[in-house]
C-alpha cells in the first residue's frame, strides 16, 4: 500500500538553520527597511530631496550612506535576532523571525521626519523551556552585538590612527556605535527587552552583561 505523498517543503537550510520563504522575505524586508530608515535619518539633504526640496546631495553620497546603514544597523539588528533563533533551535524550539511591518513602516516614516525608533520584529518560538533556557536565548542577542562591536573596534582604531576618512571610517565608527547601543538598550530590564528575561533567570548573569553593555552604550552615544 502506497504511503501518502509528502507536500514539498519550501524551507531552505542555511548554516544548519531552516528558514521558510516567509521568514527569508521578512529578514530581507526588515534589513532593507532599516537601511532606508537610517539613511533618511542620517542624511537631512536626502529627506529634503524626498520632500521635493532638491539640494546638493549627490547620488553617490546617498548610496554610501545606504550601504553603511545596511552593513551596520541592518546587520546589527538582524544578527541580534538570528542569535536568538540559533540558541532557541539548540534547545529544540521551533523558531522563526517575524517582521513587524507596521513598526518597520513607522521606522521609515520616523527617519523621514528626523525621529527614529526601530523595532523590526522578533524571533518567535514555541516549546517548553526552563527559566535558564529563556535567559540564554535572551542574552544571546546583546552578546552578539558586543561581539560585532569588537569586530568593528580594530578597524575603527586603525582608520583613526592612520587618518583614513570617507566610507571606511564612517562604516567602522557607525558599526561600533550601533552595536554598543543595541547591546546596552536591549539589556535594560524593562518591558519586552532581553534584560528583563535575563534578570528573571539570573541576577549575576544580568549584572555581568548589563552593566558593561549599558555603560558602553552610553559611552557610544556621547563619545563616538
From TrEMBL:
The chain crosses the membrane at residues 24-42, 62-83, 104-123, 143-164, 176-193, 205-223. GO terms for biological process: proteolysis. Keywords: Hydrolase, Membrane, Metalloprotease, Protease, Transmembrane, Transmembrane helix. One of its GO terms (molecular function) is metallopeptidase activity. The keyword Transmembrane applies. InterPro entries: Metallopeptidase_M50B. The keyword Hydrolase applies. This is Metallopeptidase. It comes from Haloarcula marismortui (strain ATCC 43049 / DSM 3752 / JCM 8966 / VKM B-1809) (Halobacterium marismortui).
Amino acid at each position: 500500500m502506497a504511503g501518502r505523498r509528502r507536500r514539498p517543503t519550501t524551507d531552505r537550510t542555511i548554516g544548519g538553520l531552516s528558514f521558510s520563504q516567509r521568514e527569508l522575505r521578512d529578514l530581507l524586508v526588515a534589513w532593507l527597511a532599516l537601511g532606508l530608515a537610517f539613511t533618511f535619518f542620517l542624511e537631512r539633504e536626502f529627506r529634503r530631496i524626498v520632500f521635493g526640496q532638491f539640494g546638493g546631495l549627490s547620488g553617490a553620497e546617498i548610496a554610501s550612506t545606504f550601504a553603511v546603514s545596511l552593513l551596520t544597523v541592518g546587520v546589527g539588528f538582524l544578527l541580534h535576532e538570528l542569535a536568538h533563533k540559533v540558541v532557541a533551535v539548540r534547545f529544540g524550539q521551533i523558531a522563526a523571525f517575524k517582521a513587524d511591518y507596521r513598526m518597520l513602516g513607522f521606522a521609515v516614516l520616523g527617519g523621514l521626519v528626523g525621529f527614529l525608533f526601530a523595532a523590526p520584529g522578533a524571533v518567535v518560538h514555541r516549546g517548553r523551556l526552563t527559566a535558564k533556557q529563556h535567559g540564554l536565548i535572551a542574552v544571546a542577542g546583546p552578546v552578539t552585538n558586543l561581539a560585532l562591536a569588537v569586530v568593528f573596534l580594530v578597524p575603527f582604531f586603525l582608520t583613526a590612527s592612520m587618518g583614513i576618512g570617507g566610507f571606511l571610517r564612517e562604516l567602522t565608527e557607525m558599526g561600533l556605535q550601533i552595536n554598543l547601543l543595541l547591546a546596552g538598550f536591549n539589556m535594560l530590564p524593562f518591558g519586552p527587552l532581553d534584560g528583563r528575561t535575563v534578570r528573571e533567570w539570573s541576577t549575576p548573569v544580568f549584572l555581568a552583561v548589563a552593566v558593561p553593555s549599558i555603560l558602553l552604550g552610553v559611552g557610544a552615544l556621547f563619545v563616538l
